[in-house]
Write a structure and sequence with these properties.
With 113 residues, this protein is mainly α. It has one domain. Helices cover 73% and strands 0% of the residues. The protein has four helices and no strands. It is elongated and about 70 Å long. It starts with a helix and ends in a 14-residue tail after the last helix.
Length: 113
Amino acid sequence: MKIAVGIIGITLALIALMQSCTITGLSGIVEDEATGEAGAMGMLTAFLMFFGGAFAFGVPRVAQVFFGLAFLASIPARENFPDMWVWGIISAILAGLLFFHKKPKKSDAPPAE
């Protein structure tokens, strides 16, 4: 489960980052400050999703924290950048999937000498 969450998290984070950079750049062209700030929060959300995906491979509990922070970072930007609903909900779902990650059981074999 953690490998799938890591790959999905990194891939979607890169898509969210490209979208947020585009929104931020275009809002600078049309001089819309509120949308520019929402785009900046979108970039923060994308970076947190990326780190969550990266940590999902080795430390799933830390990845849950990053995905949770990505969800929280998406909240202020939702009014001016409606796609942040999507990225926030996806982050919450990925954090929830990592909740069900099971640690591998240690084998009963004696340690090698």
